[in-house]
């Protein structure tokens, strides 16, 4: 069967396609289907993911995946968090959004550079059933940003245990799943691992 990937973010779409590939599921994007973007009115990642997944499932009659994610900076009380996309002002260029994170840290005189990424992944069916999976990854903010890979805040996020930022790591290193050990690095890959665990099988 086919599923919809309910995102309009190209970087996220590429990762979700790669993450779904081992499940052998044919995926079509919300953009390719010209689906409208619902307003993200939730106050939690899981709520916004559900809004997007439900809207796509009911518009298409197909099961739909949506990811709602963000960067939570500890010294900024979790900002930009739910507003991570909005801090770019709708642009695909996150140089300004990353500069704002750095500026707000400096304004607070914050020495604490700890942060984490969250991914809430919702799979919704047209009959109203839905499942939620979550993943997170902790790390430190670097300045200036490093690397040109990935998307969003990747160049300023250095995951624990790695000398490189998500902007410097390759796709396989950022969101590849090691099925032997059942481990993955990125928040989104960890949410898909949790989905795989729920399926109680090893794809491939
Ligand atoms: P959709 O709602 O259409 O999926 P979006 O970009 O608006 O696209 P979100 O509302 O979930 O998605 O916003 C998440 C933002 O958090 C995203 O735009 C990035 O800036 C950031 N983000 C999430 N995951 C990221 C990752 O893996 N690397 C870097 N930044 C990430």
TrEMBL record:
Enzyme active site: 68
Gene3D superfamilies registered for this protein in UniProt: 3.90.950.10
Catalyzed reactions: ITP + H2O = IMP + diphosphate + H(+); dITP + H2O = dIMP + diphosphate + H(+); XTP + H2O = XMP + diphosphate + H(+)
Alphabetical UniProt keywords: Hydrolase, Magnesium, Metal-binding, Nucleotide metabolism, Nucleotide-binding
Residues binding Mg(2+), per UniProt: 39, 68
InterPro entries the UniProt entry points to: dITP/XTP_pyrophosphatase, ITPase-like_fam, RdgB/HAM1
Needed cofactors: Mg(2+)
Enzyme Commission code: 3.6.1.66
Residues that hold substrate according to the record: 7-12, 69, 151-154, 174, 187-188
Transmembrane segments: none
Co-factor note (free text): Binds 1 Mg(2+) ion per subunit.
Protein task: Pyrophosphatase that catalyzes the hydrolysis of nucleoside triphosphates to their monophosphate derivatives, with a high preference for the non-canonical purine nucleotides XTP (xanthosine triphosphate), dITP (deoxyinosine triphosphate) and ITP. Seems to function as a house-cleaning enzyme that removes non-canonical purine nucleotides from the nucleotide pool, thus preventing their incorporation into DNA/RNA and avoiding chromosomal lesions.
HAMAP family hit by this protein: Non_canon_purine_NTPase
UniProt record similarity statement: Belongs to the HAM1 NTPase family.
UniProt name for this protein: dITP/XTP pyrophosphatase
């Amino acid at each position: 069967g086919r599923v919809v990937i309910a995102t309009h973010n190209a970087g996220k779409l590429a990762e979700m396609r790669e993450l779904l590939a081992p499940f052998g599921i044919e995926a079509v994007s919300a953009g390719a289907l010209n689906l409208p973007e619902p307003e993200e009115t939730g106050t939690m990642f899981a709520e916004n993911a559900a809004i997007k997944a439900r809207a796509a499932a009911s518009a298409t009659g197909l099961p739909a995946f949506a990811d709602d994610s963000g960067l939570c900076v500890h010294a900024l009380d979790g900002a930009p968090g739910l507003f991570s996309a909005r801090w770019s002002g709708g642009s695909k260029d996150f140089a300004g959004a990353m500069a704002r994170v750095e500026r707000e840290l400096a304004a607070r005189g914050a020495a604490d550079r700890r942060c984490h990424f969250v991914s809430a992944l919702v799979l919704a069916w047209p009959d109203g059933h839905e499942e939620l999976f979550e993943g997170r990854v902790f790390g430190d903010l670097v300045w200036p940003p490093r690397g040109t890979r990935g998307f969003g805040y990747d160049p300023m996020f250095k995951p624990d245990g790695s000398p490189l930022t998500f902007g410097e790591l390759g796709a396989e290193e950022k969101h590849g799943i090691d099925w032997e050990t059942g481990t993955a690095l990125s928040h989104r890959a960890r949410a898909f691992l949790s989905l795989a665990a729920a399926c109680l099988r090893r794809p491939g």
